[in-house]
Amino acid sequence: MALRLATTSALRSAAPARLLSTTAAGSLDRMHSVEDFERVLNKFAEIRACAVLRTATSEACPKAMQAAIDGGFKICEFTLTTPDCLSHLADFRAKYDGDVMVGCGTIMNTEDAENAIDAGSEFIITPVMLPDVIEWCKERNIVCVPGCQTPTELTMAYRHGAPLQKLFPGVTGGPMWVKAVSAALPFLSINPTSGVDLDNAGEYLKNGAASVGLVAPLFDPAAIASGDFDQIAQNAAKVMANVREVGPYQRK
């Protein structure tokens, strides 16, 4: 009994603050509803894979992302390191609103987050653990997925209010690392990106990952450089077949 109480207390102490209601925080700019927050998390739980795009040229960006969508992706992340990122994000949000969920990555501060939300981003991704961005999003019922490298960072991101935690960069052990950390810290919902490829995405999910992000293995730089967007669509179809085989994530 003592052990059970201690475990319950430990999990409770790790819990993030509750979402703000629209009424309680109605004066905040860019406020989202609790229902919208839940919609985004439900989409991640259903689809479980996000196409993460970074291209050297603006021209390649929409072609590459369209290929990923044609191959079956329903969650897409445009990164701010891509030229004209927010313009492309806005175009895809208008084109696929309600079907494909669109977010923005490489967010480094709250101004970046504001600009991304204004462009139509439905979620925010940071490459590192940035408490100010996480809390800005939490206050507005916006899903933030911050980059974390260690169990400590993953837990701190959760405590600051991140409902999903991005594992970046990749770690030694891959799926087995995720399995070990998820077992020890079951309140986490880990989203590995770096180190996930077309073949092992399903293994990450089977071993405790809530969802995964696909970067270079999906968006093969050589295929983008040569304009072979059919290859990207084929990559997308392959990885999404592996992901669908695992099934939806049971949210915590």
Helix-strand makeup class: alpha/beta
How large a portion of the residues is in β-strands, by DSSP E? 5-15%
For the termini, the CA-CA separation is 23 Å
What is the string of helix and strand elements?
HHEHEHEHEHEHEHEHEHH
Give me the count of strands: 8
**If strands are numbered along the chain, what order do they take across the biggest sheet?**
3-2-1-8
Give the biggest sheet: 4 strands, parallel
Helix content: 40-55%
Q: Kindly state the mean pLDDT as a whole number?
A: 92
Q: Give the overall form.
A: globular
DSSP helical segment count: 11
**Radius of gyration, whole Å:** 18 Å
Contiguous low-pLDDT stretches (5 residues minimum) are 1-13
Keywords:
252 residues; alpha/beta; four-stranded parallel sheet; 8 strands; 47% helix; globular
What does this structure look like?
The chain is an alpha/beta fold and about 250 residues long. It has helices at about 1-15, 35-45, 60-70, 85-95, 110-120, 130-140, 150-160, 175-185, 200-205, 220-225, 230-245; strands at about 50-55, 75-80, 100-105, 125, 145-150, 165, 190, 210-215. The protein has a 4-stranded parallel sheet with strand order 3-2-1-8, sandwiched between helices. Strands 4-5-6-7 form a 4-stranded parallel sheet. Strand 4, helix 6 (about 130-140) and strand 5 (about 145-150) form a beta-alpha-beta unit. The longest helix is centred in the C-terminal third of the chain and has 18 residues, at about 230-245.
